[in-house]
């Protein structure tokens, strides 16, 4: 390897939306990288524990001698380091709002529409309705947009796309829940189709059947926790 050559490594997991979104960004920007897959449900490698001793979670991004956990931070770092095909808006308000929606989806939508739903003590119809109320905020935000940030794939498509259609929806499917029917969420479903048409994104989406089996395991674990 020459002295100037970049060393880029991602420690991720095939089923993790947090890892998938980082691969989406690397592929979109054409950054070559080595990938190490962690089967974190079974075992956490000494490398993962060493690189992310605080959270012990994937993904961890390694660029030369820099080590960075946390997918939102990794995406921002990638965007600022490899500036072709920008994924975040350039204007301060657009950037702040992209961060807002990304945080909302990871910190509110994901736990409330999945983990809490699996364990809910409410009537399931009521819990689903509450989950749909949250998702409706995304439906409204996405209305009329090809992608979340406009005409090209960007940060929000990676964060929200890796989470809602290509992770949570598979969990809802294995629980037999039709969470985002077309009649109720036409704009969300239109946007999902746009994502599925993109070759780079498609490459980063976990294989559906295998993923549903994985989500079954997660549902079982949440139930018995
Ligand atoms: N906030 C983190 C979340 C990462 C995360 O939750 N990763 C999961 C995989 S989907 C993990 O490593 N879980 C292992 C554990 O919870 O012990 C990010 O955005 O990167």
TrEMBL record:
The record's principal subcellular location, in a coarse class, is cytoplasm
Which ranges carry the GST C-terminal domain? 91-225
Cellular localisation? Cytoplasm, Cytosol
A Gene Ontology molecular function term for this protein is:
glutathione transferase activity
EC category: transferase
User: Which Pfam families does this chain map to?
Assistant: GST_C (PF00043), GST_N (PF02798)
Return the InterPro entries for the record: Glutathione-S-Trfase_C-like, Glutathione-S-Trfase_C_sf, Glutathione_S-Trfase, Glutathione_S-Trfase_N, GST_C, GST_C_Tau, Omega/Tau-like, Thioredoxin-like_sf
Q: Which reaction does it catalyse?
A: RX + glutathione = an S-substituted glutathione + a halide anion + H(+)
Give the record's GO biological process terms. Answer: toxin catabolic process
- Per the UniProt entry, the signal peptide is none
**What UniProt keywords are attached to this protein's entry?**
Cytoplasm, Detoxification, Transferase
| EC number of the protein | 2.5.1.18
Q: Name one GO cellular component term.
A: cytosol
The chain positions of domain GST N-terminal read 6-86
**PANTHER family linked to this entry:** GLUTATHIONE S-TRANSFERASE U3, GLUTATHIONE S-TRANSFERASE, GST, SUPERFAMILY, GST DOMAIN CONTAINING
The UniProt entry's sequence similarity note says: Belongs to the GST superfamily. Tau family.
* Name of the protein described by the UniProt record: glutathione transferase
């Amino acid at each position: 390897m020459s002295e100037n050559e970049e060393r880029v490594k991602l420690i991720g997991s095939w089923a993790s939306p947090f890892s998938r979104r980082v691969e989406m960004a690397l592929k979109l920007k054409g950054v070559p990288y080595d990938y190490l897959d962690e089967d974190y449900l079974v075992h956490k490698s000494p490398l993962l524990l060493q690189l992310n001793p605080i959270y012990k979670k994937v993904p961890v991004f390694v660029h030369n001698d820099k080590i960075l956990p946390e997918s939102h931070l990794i995406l921002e770092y990638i965007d600022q380091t490899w500036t072709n095909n920008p994924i975040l808006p350039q204007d301060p308000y657009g950037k702040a709002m992209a961060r807002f929606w990304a945080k909302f989806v990871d910190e509110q939508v994901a736990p409330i529409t999945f983990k809490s739903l699996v364990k809910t003590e409410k009537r399931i119809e009521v819990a689903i309705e509450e989950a749909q109320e949250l998702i409706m905020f995304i439906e409204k935000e996405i209305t009329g947009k090809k992608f979340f940030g406009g005409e090209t794939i960007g940060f929000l498509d990676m964060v929200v796309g890796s989470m809602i259609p290509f992770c949570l929806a598979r969990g809802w499917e294995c629980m037999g829940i039709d969470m985002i029917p077309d009649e109720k969420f036409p704009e969300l479903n239109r946007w999902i189709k746009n994502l599925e048409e993109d070759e780079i994104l498609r490459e980063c989406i976990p294989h559906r059947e295998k993923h549903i089996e994985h989500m079954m395991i997660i549902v079982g674990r949440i139930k018995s926790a």
